[in-house]
Amino acid sequence: MFTIRKRSLILLTAAILFISSSLLCLSVLAKRPDNVSILMAAPFADSTSELVKIFNQKNRGRIHLEVIKGPLETEAISDLAISSLLLGNTPFDGLLMDVTWVPKYAKAGWLESLDNYFNEDDLNALAEGADEGNHYQGSLLRWPLNADIGLLYWRTDLMDEPPRTPQELESISQKLQNGGRIPYGYVWQGKQYEGLSCVFLEIIDGFGGEWFSPDSGRIGLDEPPGLDASEWLNHLIQTGVSPRAVTNFAESEALQSFKSGQAAFMRNWPYAWAELQKNDSQVRNKVGITTMVAEKGHQPAATLGSWGLSLLKGSAHPESTVEAFKFLTSEESQRYLYTKYGNTPTKAEIFNDQKLLENYPSLQSIGEALAYARSRPETPLYAQISVVLQRKLSSSLTGMTTPVEAMQQAERSTAQVLEAAGESP
Amino acid sequence: MPLLILLIPSLLFLVAVFALPLFRYTWLSFHADSVMTGLVAIPNQGANWQRFIHDTRYLQDLFQTLRFSVVSVTAEIVLGLVIALILHQPMRKRALIRSSALIPWALPTTVMALGWRWIFNTPYGPIDRLTQSWLGQSLNALGEPSIAWITTVYADIWKTTPFVALILLAGLQTIPSDLYEAAKLEGAGSWICLRRITIPLLLPYLGLALMFRLAQAFGVFDLVQVMTGGGPASSTESIALYAYWNALRFLDFGYSATIMIGSFVILSSLILITWLVVTTARNRSQQSLAR
Known about the structure:
CATH topology of the largest domain in chain A: D-Maltodextrin-Binding Protein, domain 2
Strand order of the largest sheet of chain B: 1-2
Order of helices and strands of chain B: HEEHHHHHHHHHHHH
Structural class of chain B: mainly alpha
Number of helices of chain B: 13
CATH superfamily of the largest domain in chain A: Periplasmic binding protein-like II
Helix content of chain B: over 70%
Structural class of chain A: alpha/beta
Low-confidence stretches of chain A: none
Number of strands of chain A: 16
Oligomer: heterodimer
CATH class of one domain in chain B: Mainly Alpha
CATH class of the largest domain in chain A: Alpha Beta
Strand content of chain A: 5-15%
Radius of gyration of chain B: 23 Å
């Protein structure tokens, strides 16, 4: 009798303990903050780490933001994101996207529209140029974190004014080279990779052409501006204005060469500015920035290379994710990211901030160049047509084909790519 | 019969690992499945194969991949044999020397490819510095299409020769030493011993190394991806890189599957031919040995 009672007592206590503890667990679960994760390329994960801490402190118990640090290279990040998206349920709520991915990801159905989260005023607050490349087929799919554009860096100690046309750039370079003042004129990105497409876009636009127009389906490579652009790049190498090694230069190689005082001009992104002002730079305080050269009568072009935040379909906490986006792209955050890491801001107001401009004079030139920002062709097939162009340009720059043949072949292959995908050119 | 039942689990495993993906890719190669179709497979009546047959880029990649495979594997077999013969000799600290010869093989490909990329870098890499000071001219190894592919071959030889040497060394140890003693008594020199004893008895191992390496070299991906990214002018692009780009960069899975199946057929026939050549050579040498 006694033993039975004792046993039932034990059972009862155990049951009470179990029920109360599970209730406790449930209540804790109910109060658990929304976990939001964003995948970013390594440099951005590093530069935003302080901001993430502040955000999490502000929203303690409500939202917990985690930034997942991806690889360094743009393409490696894309490969990583795509391989997880292909497997179905997204492991991330947000993705920091390169401007060229937007149409492809949108067409694949991986992005959630941001139209309900950002209004007209938000869009109007963006600087001219920073508003490009965020929409696809009329809906907002990406909110810009920074505004990257291609710039022409020039040496203020070697000339009074930067060149404005391709001919000027060449003649100034040759004069300096012949006078023995500098080994090379102009360094840029001539390696077979995305950077080469960015370089080319600026030149073909500067000659008054267009690489590819997704709306009209027109390809402009085998047309006078395209051929001129291709010939000019080739000419730079042939005349020795650019070193032969540019055919294997990416951003870092060009920067290395310009930083050590080997060249009079360099094409690079805004991040290079901070690098050139460091103590180990041979050209510290001797550098100016401007837009890329353009033929007389045509506007210069600056390839837009911005990064922005996109909401992935299937995210469990879309509202909280967008809240994190808004915090990371707020004016305050942008100011911090610019002054600390040189990330170009996207809000127009920051470019007009007199106090900031006094301390960071380069911001003005960047803001001016931003107005000339040009997106690369906005099509889901962008990666294909860009690879076609890179490949053909690279063969012309390395002397495997003539610049004219290269453009003719590139035009034909681009048409084939579009045709194979069911997009009649 | 009971034996067959015991084989079922491993057969199932093989089906899951080899047959299913092959069937799936073959099926996919007859469908349009890309970003343009919203990643949904739609039958397209062999349009992928039509494109495959006329794809000059694939043809160029096939040539480049074969060039890479044949040159690097040949060099690796020859060098591997030499190294195996050296490591087979009795010497002091042999175990230490043998294991240190394996270091390149133990390094991850991406790591060593990154290393070679910097060694061949223009104008800051040591190789370029050497040619600049000796020849007064930059080699531009990774920027020159006629040279760039050789650098990838070079890096591959550096990495995988130890693997070939290891297989051949294992083979050398199976050859009974009394054969050599007998031959020496008959007055045979080392050259005759190598030609009449070592090589014929090593043939199965040579064949094994050849097939392993050929299959691996034909699918070369990470080395090229890291060292050159396929450039310059696509002169180092391999088939695997092209298929990968079609799938992950272009999101064109139908065509990517077509490239893989097409390459699979080509590779299998290549391996079959190699195997036939090796077995007939072995049979012939065994006959001549018997005589």
